[in-house]
Design brief:
56% of the residues lie in helices and 13% in strands. The chain has 158 residues and is α+β, with helices and mostly antiparallel strands. It folds into 2 domains: 43 residues, no CATH class; 105 residues, no CATH class.
Length: 158
């Protein structure tokens, strides 16, 4: 994970006239615009891909349910089978590319989030595990629901 920070972030009374009276703000970004030559230093992390294995596993299961449901519902024709094979190959290529890029610079340690000892550090602030799982798995679970539903409709119709 790549993080950018000023050497010493400052939290003080907001000097912006648009702020409400007495409101505090993080003036780190304000300092970047007001201080000529202010530089960010990169904090290169040597941790892994942040997500625990259970999130990656749940994502894989969701995609498997999606493609299995579509396969069982539509694979009677060659055109549908061809389209499904292309979709499966693109999905495999998407995850395989990430895996190959990750293995170019493997982790030296598990991230605190993956260990369950800290929230996930994001650009907008820390996120708890439930919120991370909900954001990451929303689309895969929606696709799995669609694939299973499509299969059930097909089974009920025939």
């Amino acid at each position: 994970m790549l993080e950018y920070r000023l050497a010493e972030p400052v939290v003080d009374e907001c000097s912006d006239p648009c702020c409400n009276i007495g409101e505090t703000c993080d003036s780190t970004m304000l300092a970047l615009f007001e201080t000529p030559g202010a530089r960010l230093r990169a904090d290169h992390s040597d941790s892994d891909l942040e997500f625990p294995r259970r999130i990656w596993f749940a994502m894989g299961v969701a995609y498997a349910v999606f493609f299995t449901g579509l396969w069982l519902a539509t694979a009677s024709g060659t055109a549908a089978t061809f389209a499904l094979v292309i979709g499966i190959l693109y999905t495999l290529m998407y995850f395989a590319t990430a895996l190959v890029l990750f293995r170019l610079n493997p982790a030296r340690r598990r991230s605190p989030f993956a260990q369950g000892t800290a929230p996930l550090a994001t650009w907008t602030g820390p996120m708890e595990g439930g919120a991370v799982a909900a954001q990451v798995l929303a689309i895969p679970f929606a696709l799995a629901t669609f694939g299973a539903g499509f299969m059930l409709v097909r089974a009920a119709a025939f």
